[in-house]
TrEMBL record:
GO biological process, one term: ribosomal small subunit biogenesis
Record family assignment: Belongs to the TRAFAC class YlqF/YawG GTPase family. RsgA subfamily.
Species: Nonomuraea soli
Record keywords: Cytoplasm, GTP-binding, Hydrolase, Metal-binding, Nucleotide-binding, Ribosome biogenesis, RNA-binding, rRNA-binding, Zinc
GO cellular component, one term: cytoplasm
Name of the protein in its database record: Small ribosomal subunit biogenesis GTPase RsgA
E.C. designation(s): 3.6.1.-
Gene: rsgA
Length: 366
């Protein structure tokens, strides 16, 4: 089976980035030390070259991910090797999350790329929870990361057929926390809103679907593909939570044009390298802040604070302000972690250079 790479997003301008004696391929799925790629002559398994492994050991963001364009080479024994990852136009990166010595969550300045070269980021939030109707804080976080990735966020309120009353009010609440972002109600099983979603994927555009388990991401991908390309499961009875059906990220080509990346459910998404994403999501607060009496106002009791005045009048919900403060603190903390890591790397580099120089002059004196 052959592929027209232009329908996968390949452009002639990318050819200049290809190393000699390699051909382009798009990463459809990754495994440990290897990737399934789509080249002009079909699907291949390509193991990572030594250069790729070394780069990823230094910085996990350099690790090949779904959506990447890569240079592959056929080796004499007939297998393929992934020689290099080509420059990304966009990258959805989340901060690493691990466990500290006390068992709590701790951030990591090294990020993880969830998807690359994505035009549209579909943020899927189920309309029906056991405790509330939508996690507005999660929507704010994912939309901020979507803006930061370079892609265009679109919020999809899924399983809208299960929402009996107040759907318009729910959509209004979501639009309020995602200014400037398209928000749509979708019922993949009923086919409602699916055609509208597919309209974002004309030609060779690529989308990634992000959201919690049980949000109906795989069901939406199946509806877009017109068939069962991803396994699905029902939401667990009792707690309303979804099961992790999708355990890997995968690039799916759609029969009507465009590509979509399905992802496992996301429990927690840490910010990484955040600069403008939070400002765009909280444009309402940023606009209020410009009206404060003092340019360096912290919105924490200063006189003439327009943000606190909006809070007191009810114009600004307290939940929204707390969410903004939380993401601002996290973004600042991740930035400080990155600076500390950079300083540590520079110190190690100069320590190594100094050691080499001392050895060199010591040997010269013998």
């Amino acid at each position: 089976m052959s592929f027209d790479l232009s329908l996968l997003g390949w452009t002639d301008s990318m050819a200049a980035e290809l190393p000699a004696d390699t051909v382009p391929a798009r990463v459809a799925r990754v495994d440990r030390g290897a990737a399934e790629v789509i080249a002009a002559d079909g699907h291949h398994q390509a193991r990572y070259s030594a250069d790729v492994r070394r780069a990823a050991a230094t910085d996990p963001v350099a690790l090949p991910c779904v959506g990447d364009w890569a240079a592959i080479r056929m080796l004499p024994e007939g297998r393929y090797e992934l020689e290099a990852v080509l420059p990304r136009t966009t990258a959805f990166v989340r901060g690493g999350v691990g466990r500290d010595s006390r068992g709590g969550l701790s951030g990591d300045s090294q990020g993880q790329v969830l998807a690359a070269n994505v035009d549209i980021v579909f943020v899927a939030e189920p309309s029906m929870h056991s405790t509330d109707f939508a996690d507005l804080g999660r929507i704010e976080r994912l939309v901020a990361l979507a803006w930061e990735s370079g892609g265009t966020p679109v919020v999809l309120i899924t399983k809208s057929d299960l929402f009996e009353h107040g759907l318009d009010e729910l959509l209004a609440d979501v639009r309020a926390v995602a200014p400037g972002v398209d928000v749509h109600a979708v019922s993949s099983l009923q086919g409602e809103g699916v055609e509208l979603v597919s309209g974002y994927l004309q030609g060779s555009r690529t989308a990634v679907v992000l959201g919690p388990s049980g949000a109906g991401k795989s069901t939406l991908v199946n509806a877009l593909a017109g068939g069962e390309v991803m396994d699905t499961q029902q939401v667990r009875a009792g707690d309303g939570r979804g099961r992790h059906t999708t355990v890997h990220r995968e690039l799916i080509t759609l029969p009507g044009g465009g590509l979509v990346i399905d992802t496992p459910g996301i429990r927690r998404v840490g910010l990484y390298g955040m600069s403008e994403g939070v400002d765009l999501v909280f444009a309402d607060i940023e606009e209020l802040a410009e009206q404060c009496r003092f340019d360096d106002c912290n919105h924490d009791g200063e006189p003439g604070c327009a943000v606190l005045e909006a809070l007191e009048s009810g114009e600004l919900p307290e939940r929204r302000l707390e969410s903004w403060r939380k993401l601002q603190r996290e973004a600042a903390w991740m930035a400080s972690r990155g600076d500390a890591r950079l300083r540590k790397e520079q110190q190690a580099k100069w320590k190594s250079i100094t050691k080499q120089l001392r050895t060199h002059y010591k040997n010269r004196g013998r």
